[in-house]
Amino acid sequence: MGALVLACGKDAGHAQSPALADRDEVELHRVPARPGKDDVDHLVKGLDGRRLVVVGDDADLAAVTLRLLRKELLKDVTVGFVPTAADSTVASLWDLPLDAGRAVDIALTSDPDPVPLIRDDSGGVLVGRGVIGPVRGMAYCDETVVLRGQASRITVSPDPDRAGLLVQVTKRALMVKHTTAAQGRACQIGCVPAIVRLDGVPHPRPVTKWTWYRNSDDLRLARGLL
Length: 226
Hints:
Order of helices and strands: EEHEHEHHEEEEEEEEEEEEEE
Distance between the termini: 23 Å
Number of helices: 4
Strand order of the largest sheet: 7-6-17-14-9-10
Strand content: 35-45%
Radius of gyration: 18 Å
């Protein structure tokens, strides 16, 4: 059936390698880093049953996934991911290789595996890691209080056990780091103004409340039986 490949930003240069660009079934497009509506929507409208492959970092994958969500295509599209960053949380969570050749093979040929997609109450999506902190306030994972007071950070990611999301609260005292974890479908935070980072990208302004929650439709990630 073939694939539509979006090579995002300047770090996706290896998308021109024979591992990807020379395949007959591939339609390759270069788009900006963290592509938006005008970059993506007209391309995904013509998928016609093909899979969509994103070459870029976690933030690029999140940006493209958001467009699929907005166009109500999540149920229908298999998404392959070729990570360009060695510290990709998505690759670590879902056992995707960082080697370009192997990553391309998996993105183009592996069966889709539905994995949790996380949304937030500002209209964004999270595919890898969200971090808020330093933070002082209250935080819940579903009905469980995971923070009352101060923490160095709260980290949220899709749950590898498929429960929804994984919440980790990290505190430091007397040079000792202590982390607690919880699993659930949602994480709600109320705090004094704090900074949120979404897949490595800072939110444009400090927040006093924030919610992450599992989307009703999963991301159909090409990863096969790894």
